Amino acid sequence: MNISSSSNLFWSLFLIAIWLPDMAPAGDTLVQIQLPGGSVIEAEIADTPKKRAEGLMYRERLAKDRGMLFTFGQAQPWTFWMKNTKIPLDIIWMNDQKQIIHIAHNVPVCTRTDDSCPQYQPNDPALYVLELGGGEADRLKLERGSRLKFRVP
Does the predicted TM-score (pTM) go above 0.70? Predict the structure, then answer.
């Protein structure tokens, strides 16, 4: 390998490293979520126990127009925590009508190595939970009672 191809390989890997954390893992489905103000979020679907358990753990960043949508078979006050999550998040719980029932704003990362990270949950049952980058719910003017539009595959 010569120096120029070495350099090209370096820059290719560098660009992949920059963009990869914002992309859904290969093979994951993205769903478009239309917000009341007209903005659209593309969200990865967390619809299996494994995907729900991992969530957005280990991500270095999350683009403003990206998120993760957790879907459940039954409505409950689902509990979330930030173990191994490297970025602050807004956690948005919705009922079966896709109406926001609770928002945990700008939830901080948890650097504890044991299982004692704080837990977050709504008072009411939720069927869907959307995670966005910290501060995005305020920026997008999302609030309790807002209704989002999306189709779960």
Answer: yes
